[in-house]
Amino acid sequence: MTISRREFLARGTAVGLGLTILPRLARAVLLPSIAVYKSPTCGCCGAWVDHMKANGFEVAVHDMDDLTPIKSRYGVGSRLQSCHTALVGGYVIEGHVPASDVKQLLQDRPKIVGLTIPGMPMSAPGMDGKPFQPYDVLSFDAAGKTTLYKRHTS
């Protein structure tokens, strides 16, 4: 069977597109759901949930009046804390960590407990303060030791 040059190119383009798009679709489909524990009255936590959903995560929200038991159970010491705690793929995400950092964490699978942005930096997702103010995302281990995970400068 012979095919025309045009048909050959069309088939090749379709295959090339498939090889480009399919891995991205597979990664999107493979994102685990994320459980978020937050205060029922916290607007910035709700905005962070929206940020995570907009970035492909399925989010289960658990409103709680007291987050202390969750933070304690998952090793989030007082100096690591923010306004909400999330669990995803075996990791703890404390505060307004960008979805891109969570995705990188899930891809790399380092041997840490999780990521945190202590406090509530005004430029982090869900806070969205202007003008942009740089902030750091920290990784933390079971002993509470932190290491710079990513510096956000813009």
List the helices and strands and how they pair.
Blueprint: H1 5-29, E1 34-38, H2 43-54, E2 59-63, H3 68-73, E3 85-88, E4 91-94, H4 99-108, E5 114-116, E6 135-140, E7 146-152
Parallel strand pairs: 1-2, 4-5
Antiparallel strand pairs: 1-3, 3-4, 5-6, 6-7
Word description of this protein:
With 154 residues, this protein is of the alpha/beta class. 34% of the residues lie in helices and 22% in strands. It contains 4 helices and 7 strands, in the order H-E-H-E-H-E-E-H-E-E-E. It has helices spanning 5-29, 43-54, 68-73, 99-108; strands spanning 34-38, 59-63, 85-88, 91-94, 114-116, 135-140, 146-152. It has a 7-stranded mixed beta sheet, with helices on one face. Strand 6 and strand 7 form a beta hairpin. The protein is globular. The model has no long low-confidence stretch (mean pLDDT 87).
Low-confidence stretches: none
What is the approximate shape? globular
N-to-C order of helices and strands: HEHEHEEHEEE
Number of strands: 7
Structural class of the secondary elements?
A: alpha/beta
The span between the termini is 56 Å
Number of helices: 4
- Rg, alpha carbons: 20 Å
Mean pLDDT score: 87
Strand arrangement within the widest β-sheet reads 2-1-3-4-5-6-7
| Strand residue content | 15-25%
Describe the structure in brief.
By secondary structure, this protein is of the alpha/beta class. Helices cover 34% and strands 22% of the residues. The chain has a 7-stranded mixed β-sheet with strand order 2-1-3-4-5-6-7, with helices on one face.
